[in-house]
Amino acid sequence: MNKLLVFFSLFLVASMCFVTIPNTAQADSQLDVLIKITQNTKEHLKNDIDKLSNVSQEVYDFFDDGAKETAMLVQAAEKEDASSAKQHFISAMIAFKQASLAISESESQKTPQAATYDHSQTIIKYENNIKKLKLISGKLNANIDFNQIDQLLDLAKENISKGSIEQTKEVIGKISSEGKQIQKLLYEISEQNRIHKAKQFVQKHAERINSLILQAKTFGLDETANDLAVSKIQLLQANTTGQIKQQFKIIIIHQQKVEQVKETNQAELLKLQALLVPLEKKAQRLADDLKENNTADYLLKRAFNLIEEVKQDIKELEYAPGRINDTKYLDLTIGKKIQTIKDLLIKAEKIIYISS
Hints:
The protein has ten helices and no strands. The chain has four domains: 2-110; 114-188, no CATH class; 193-258; 264-355. The chain has helices spanning 2-17, 24-51, 57-78, 82-140, 147-162, 165-218, 222-237, 241-289, 294-317, 327-355.
């Protein structure tokens, strides 16, 4: 279309300059220029028409008039009839200009249709989004009223079918606003449901936390027990899932501390139990080798009794693990008894094997 404007500009220049023809050579030259301008205009206009999917009959009529005038221009030039050639040139260019204007007018009328198409795509997108919101609402049992936004969608479609562009824009704005409100409401409901489930989870684990607090106290971890008690209270009072998650992280850290102490105590208990194993085996071996000897028998009975007492002491430490790290207590109780067992077994051993 820009090239056509150039040719129409040349037409104006040629029209102003083509007033008189001084001689035959100059006339022939000017006629050739007019023919070239007209034919080029015709060719480019035809290319523009061919590119269009829908061309009005008016455009074809103007183009045909221009084509006829172009043909007569060529004939007049061949006859060296400069005056007729000029008239045919002007008529051809006017016809082509009218065809060009008709094309431009037709294209401008299509612009609102394109806008309508864009709005149609927007409506389709909103409609799909609303379907998703309805699915979410159903899963959440939110009981959201979608009647208003459905009515707005119907109104938007109706406006599009009528070609009411401005009204369509206005309704689309309302649909967008209503959709955002529904989305916000669904998010709030979803968050409330999550908090409710999280609180149920907290209530279910409250007893476990109490048990953990008791274990911490049992192992002498008073500070850990206090921290756990505080976390439990904050858990029960939490209003967001973020707060609940944060408190559970703290509880897990304290739980790991308790587990570490528990494992350490268990290892110490196993060490104490391991001290008894060889002593008990030795006592049993001596008892098997014992022949009638009242003194040795007395010593072994005392040793067996002490072994059972130590076993009971170790078992009681499981319920009072804080004492495992009390070296003085262990030395005065279990340690002292183990040493006595060793002494008794040594004495019994001497008597049994010397007497034999």
